[in-house]
Structures are given as C-alpha cells and as structure tokens.
Amino acid sequence: MFGVLPPGVRISESFSEFQEQTLLQPSPIPCWPSTLGSLAAGVIRAQGARSKVLVTSQGAGRITLELLRGCTSLEVVHVSPGLADMAQLLSSGQLAWEQPLEGRITEQREFRLTQEERGEGALLGAKNNSVEWIRAQLDDYSASNNLFQVVVADIRSSNSGDMIRKLGDLLDTGGCLILGSIDDVDDQSSSPKHSGGVLSRYFDRVPCVNNEASYPHIYKETRNKHQFAISYFSVWRKKTDQTKALCAASEAGDDVRDAVEYYENDKILNSYDLFHFGEGLLSVKNFPLRMAEVCLEACDKYKARLELALDAGAGPGRTAMELCTKFKQVCAYDYSHGFVENMLSKARTAGLTNLEGRQGDSHAQAEMYPGRKFDLIFGCNLIDRLHTPALWVQQSKEMLSDSGLLVISSPYTWKPEHTEPDLWLGGRVEEEQPLFTQDGLEKLLGPELVLLEAKKVPFVIPDSDGTFQYTYSNCTIFGRSK
Q: Is 31 exposed, middle or buried, given 0-12, 13-18 or 19+ CB atoms closer than 10 A?
C-alpha cells in the first residue's frame, strides 16, 4: 500500500488527523495508527503483567506512542521502515516534518506531546517502559531467538497469511497477537495466502471489546491524492505447540500457488475497463461518466457549440462515448492500441456512429487532426504523464474553435520518470515562490484563454493489495477571453 513514499507522508498519516470531507462511505476515522495503538493498549493493560512487545507496521511510530501513553511495564521493540525520529519526539516533545502538496512543493507540519509527556523519562522510565526503535522491514529484522508475549501488527495488504505465520514464529506459546488487517479475518478462505484461514488454524480468537470492529481510514499523499482502506481489528492467542507447525508452513509457503496469482496480470489488464465501464466504488460515482457530465454542463453554461469534440488520452473510451450522445462528432485517441480497440468495439455494440477513434501520441495531436477546430478538447489525467506537457497544451489551445472550451483535469502527480522536473507545468518552486499547476496552466494559456471555472472531481481506484486510491482530479475549464 505505501510503496515508495516521501517520509513526510508516513509521518502525516501517523501524527495528523484527517478532517476533510469526502464522498467516501464508510467515512474514514481521523487517525488509524492512533486508534490501533489505543485499542492495543487496552488489550495489553488487561493482561496485567510486564510484557515484551513487538510492534510492526509501515508507519512512523504512532502505535507505540499510544502504547507508552496507555501502559506501564512494557519492553517494546518497534520495527518499521518508515519510522520518524521518535527518540527526538520523546525527549523534546516535538516532531516537525514536510508534507508533500504537489510535485516538489511541501508544507511544514508539527506534532507536540502534552506538557506532562515531555522529557526523556515521562513516558519511559517514570512508567517503567522501555523502547527500541528499528528502522527496517520486518523481513530484515532478527529477533535473535527471543520471543515476545505480545505482537501488535498493522498489516496493509490483503492475502497476508505468510506475514501472519512469521508473526506467529515471533510469539511465545500462549502469546497475544493484536492485529489490524486488510483481510476480513472472519472470511474463512481456503487460500493459504488469506489471513482468515491461517489465524483460525494456529490461533484462538480472544473475545474483547471492539474485537470484530472495522475501521475505515485514509491518508494524504498529496493535496489531491489519498489512500483509503478498511482495517479489521482482532485479537488472537497462539495455540499451544504451534511453533513448529508455523515454521513448516512458512517454509512451504513459497511452493503453494493460489489460482488468484495466475490471473493477476489479467486483473491489471482489465482494471482500466472496469474503471471506465464499471460501477462507482465506495459511494463515489463512476469517474469517466462524471467527467462527461462536467464537460457537457460546461458546454451548456458557457454556450459552446456541440459540433466537434476531442478526447485526448481517452483510454477505453467511456467519456468519449458519453459525449457522443450530445455532440455531432467526437474524436478520441489513446497511446494504447488495446484501449482504442476496446473503445471502438464498445461503440459498435452501443450503435454509435459518430465516434472516430484512433491510436496516437498526445505530443503529435495537431498532426493527427490537421486543420480541424474543436468545440471541446478534453484531456483527463494526462498532462502529468507526458514528457512535454506544454506541447500538448499549446496545440490544444490552437485547435479550439472561437467558442470552444479546453477542459484539463489532473491530480498533478508529477514524477521525474514521466516528465523532467524542468518541464513540469507546476509543482515546483520558481524564484523562491511555489508554482502550482493550476497557476502554471493559466500562465501558459493566457491571455487568449482564461480560467472560467475549477472544481475537484473525486475518483476511486482499487489496488491489488486490498486498499483504494481516493484521488481528486483538479478540473480546470478554459475558454476564450471576452
């Protein structure tokens, strides 16, 4: 789920509360790492005795902070590749970091402990707690044959049976596993990869308050891009004499192949088709359909003619097909031959005769349609994937009819692997001032075109690990200056 993210993203998820309004259902809680840490602290307190605890996650350390706040007599080892400077936080009471906004533009954030919690010993020695911070993946951590009485794990991927087995190997017999998982642990899947089957085989469920609760949560990668997931909280007790069985199962795990793995590539190939023609997810409307509505609403509002429209980077073509219901003629292209074939096939099935689809490169758009003027040019989630986005923007500007609209919608996720940073339209600093992409577009398109309207349109994409991308595409509508 996390992938390669700037450290500030992980810290923000752990030490900021998400308060923004979204269209997501169920609605996300403010801070999942804090919630999981508080729930785990309640379980550990109920045990009463001094506990040696392993905490593992991909996050910045908030789970362990809540354990230290809520418990005494803990010996904690926290293993995570995304740890913040937790020692500094405990000693100074303050943590500062930079949260990405767009491209290379960031904002400063900070988190402060309460006055009573500040100082090296407030949450440690004074409460008979100790903690060792280890910045590493769990696979790289060696416990030196030491077993833990408690393991607290925040697992952010589905089909995590192998991880459960590894955690079981680190638990003493009768030890307690406190789990936040993307897998629904009540799903008794027969797959050896799924958590539910592994847990019921090697662990006993521990009844407790919130033991069957699910927690929707979200974190912000940039100001437009988010990651959403639902984690299931559960508590388990390791069965007697299961250590050897867990080790054997872990060693055999590499030889067990689930049928799902064979179709993973097919899922990836079909994902765009589902994104265009499937139902919306988590109460968020189908995005290509919604973008067609936005374009047609703008055409009506700003009196654009409905003669000729162009969908640049159309993908499998849902938006273009919807535009065909109002425009006399729609042209659509995409760099992928497969997408274009899919689009034309669906258009034939739908009986559309006014869609002209072709394969093409956005950088050569003018060459594909020489001399043609469009009443609407639509480019969605496109500019931040072009090697020279300004070239496409300039061509589109010149290819508009006198009353035409240029609609550019994008989350502005600029990356060097797609576009050299010097060619980004925004998300960078110029003359010591942040240049956001919307401002860069206004500068590039003016004075002939002016920004008529801007709105954020959300979309949801399911990831293969069981989480979801919740992203805002910033939709800017440009027209001729009057």
A: buried
